[in-house]
Amino acid sequence: MQKAVADAARAAGILKHVGPHSMRHSFATHLLEDGYDIRTVQELLGHADVSTTMVYLHVLNRGGLGVRGPLDRR
Asked: What is the largest CA-CA distance in the chain?
């Protein structure tokens, strides 16, 4: 699995190290960006402590532009 992910990244022109764990980080980040609550993400990732999951919040620093109103929902 690890070799297949690395080969796919190389074929896509991604120069950074990429492995299956990178997809786990990406999955968690996208869930939080899409508005899932931190406890749901914690459960999906299998973290015993929510502080471990909160590490993913640092990439979501969007300020006031990250606030969505009721009319912004799909």
From this structure: 44
pLDDT averaged per 10 residues, the chain (length 74): 91 90 87 88 93 81 61 69
Name the nearest CA neighbour of 61 among 38, 34, 41, 33. 33
Predicted pLDDT at 61: 66
d(CA 28, CA 42): 9
DSSP string, the chain: -HHHHHHHHHHTT--S---HHHHHHHHHHHHHHTT--HHHHHHHHT-SSHHHHGGGGGGG--GGGG---GGG--
Amino acid sitting at position 6: A
